[in-house]
Amino acid sequence: MLGPVILAASRSDKMRRFISAAPGTKQVVDRFIAGETVDQVVPIVEDAADKGLEVTLDVVGEDITTPAQAEAARDAYLELVERLKVLDLGPRAEMSVKLSMFGQALENGHELALANVRPVVEAAAAIGTTVTLDAEDHTTLDSMFAIHEELRKDFPQTGCVIQSYLFRTEDDARRLAEAGSRVRIVKGAYKEPASVAYQDKAEIDKAYVRITRILMEGEGYPMIGSHDPRLIAIAQELGRRAGRKLDEYEFQMLYGIRSDEHVRLAAEGHRMRVYTAYGTDWYGYFMRRLAEKPANLLFFGRSILTKG
């Protein structure tokens, strides 16, 4: 099982330095990271819109150690909102945020993260778009859900993410599948202990289907985050059985993975959103992409050997 090993490496400063210096790293990182600056990512948003796609934008970076860094993360998102406003791209682009970037792990982190993320959510609403709160490791989720609930009082379109590998998630899905909610379901990409999460891929997939059914049969707006053709087909069938129209749920996939499928689903009339990450602090995000799929790791290894 390479996944847990890679996830452990994502927390290692030594591995961070090694991977960052490897000759083939940039080629692979560029596959998953849309750029380092807002200027580099804007053309990608425009291109996606031309293809009938929508995006959710993530400014990468999670290892926040000071309140000043958390405020800088807030400001990076506010800069993004301003650019989307100027280019009238708000309706095509929402944002995804990790509350760890906004100071959640610091002293008084819950209050700090809420204070930092609120102006981003407010600015997004002002240009006709919204924010989704990404799920991180299980120890952060009660805080994330509480912040989500608080933000929805003023900004009911604020979304959140749930992860099928956690035992708790079916109960979370039932609670969240209410009118007006926006919930993204993913498998999960953090190293979690067997006491809180399924470890077997087949069990994670079965839970994913059960949770997708809960969301489809609920009153909210499901967002299906998967590249798995079988799970995508099952989600389509569950949506049909629940009587949902194609614009009453959406699919989400990562930038750089199965791009042809993005276009195919959009052409069929589905709402298709591309999760598009950018920024300079790409290491943690990049390592989770490697952990999710062995083919990504093989691609990275070949690149290093070719460039070395």
Could you give the order of strands across the largest sheet? Answer: 1-2-3-4-5-6-7-8
Count every beta strand, where a strand is a DSSP E run of 2 or more residues.
Answer: 8
Low-pLDDT segments: 299-308
First-to-last CA distance? 26 Å
Mean pLDDT: 87
Q: Secondary-structure element sequence? A: HHHHEHEHEHEHEHEHEHEHH
Note the total helix count.
Answer: 13
Give the proportion of residues in helices: 40-55%
Structural class: alpha/beta
* Strand percent estimate: 5-15%
Q: C-alpha Rg, in Å? A: 18 Å
Major sheet, described briefly? 8 strands, parallel, barrel
Q: Per the principal axes of the C-alpha atoms, what is the gross shape?
A: globular
Structure description:
With 308 residues, the chain is an alpha/beta fold. The protein is built from 13 helices and eight strands. The chain has helices spanning 2-9, 13-21, 25-32, 38-50, 67-86, 109-126, 141-154, 169-176, 201-217, 229-241, 259-267, 283-292, 294-307, and strands at 54-59, 93-97, 131-133, 159-163, 182-186, 221-225, 250-254, 271-278. Strands 1-2-3-4-5-6-7-8 form an eight-stranded parallel barrel, surrounded by seven helices. The chain is globular, with a radius of gyration of 18 Å. The two termini are 26 Å apart. Mean pLDDT is 87; it is low at 299-308. Pathway: Amino-acid degradation; L-proline degradation into L-glutamate; L-glutamate from L-proline: step 1/2. It catalyses: L-proline + a quinone = (S)-1-pyrroline-5-carboxylate + a quinol + H(+). This is proline dehydrogenase. Pfam families: Pro_dh. Its cofactor is FAD.
